[in-house]
Amino acid sequence: MKIKTDYITNSSSTCFVLMKKGNILLDDFISAVGIEANSRFYDIFKRLFELCFEDLTPIKEFVATDKWNSNRNSVEEYIKNIFSEETLKRIKDAEKKGFNIYMGRLYSDNDVIESYFCTSDFVIETPNLIIDATNDGW
Length: 138
Prior knowledge:
By secondary structure, the protein is of the alpha+beta class. Helix content is 40%, strand content 20%. The protein has helices spanning 26-33, 42-54, 59-65, 75-82, 85-96, 112-118, and strands at residues 13-20, 57-58, 100-107, 122-125, 129-133. A five-stranded antiparallel β-sheet has the order 2-3-1-5-4, with helices on both faces. Helix 1 (26-33) crosses helix 2. It is globular.
């Protein structure tokens, strides 16, 4: 028998909404978060960029297949339930402006940067990019 004596945790995830118009490059993202390329925080936000853009699902598909949406609520109900009215308004405004709307997940049990952002809530907003990660259950 083996007994684990080091840190044991229950992993979790949180989802975010990403709204974008056109292609968003790393430089655009770095500028959006307000840091310089020579900043000590560059690698942290480069990793956040990778996390936010590597596994996106169109919002309607995400909501329809999310295991936490057992009642199969509409996108509008889903967003109001797990985010807020403000997030729903942000999504509707972005759709009117021609943004593509996606959702993704961050996990607490991967690397330390992903874990940090998984347990934080934030909004990044520029004319061509909006990331709403205010569904922080921590």
